Amino acid sequence: MTDWKFTGGLPPLSDDEWFQEFEKYKQSPDYKRVNKGMSIEDFKFIYWMEYAHHMWGRGLGIIFALPFSYFLRKGYITVRLGLRLSSLFALGAGQGFIGWLMVKSGLEDPPSEYTQTRVSPYRLVAHLTSAFVI
């Protein structure tokens, strides 16, 4: 959950892999300031929610990109339509990038020891707003 790769990758499959992933999370400010003492079962729930969210976004990108490339290769898409569809794809990719920046902001140490760790509210709003716009 603290080390997402662009290409995705498999979630932890064995107990040992879950333990390693949980240990990485324990090093994050989110665990230290908000979820200290969380059980591995609670961690798994959060992990699966995040994983499903990421896979949903990637899946939408693939569902868009594959038919687009097929129809583009076959010559069924005009230049004007191709530009519009490419713009939509770029908006989706941008929305994913904003989401990545948002999550990254929640994994950084806050400026003060009295401040709770949170994702940037501006990035959160930008991520949600771009989803609605798209």
UniProtKB/TrEMBL annotation:
TM segment ranges: 55-73, 85-103
GO CC terms, sorted: mitochondrial inner membrane
Catalytic activity: Fe(II)-heme o + 2 A + H2O = Fe(II)-heme a + 2 AH2
Subcellular location: Membrane
Any one GO molecular-function label of the UniProt entry: oxidoreductase activity, acting on NAD(P)H, heme protein as acceptor
Signal sequence region: none
Cofactors required: heme b
Pfam families (UniProt xref): COX15-CtaA (PF02628)
GO biological process: heme A biosynthetic process
Annotated keywords: Heme biosynthesis, Iron, Membrane, Metal-binding, Oxidoreductase, Transmembrane, Transmembrane helix
Listed name of the protein: Cytochrome c oxidase assembly protein COX15
Organism: Dipteronia dyeriana
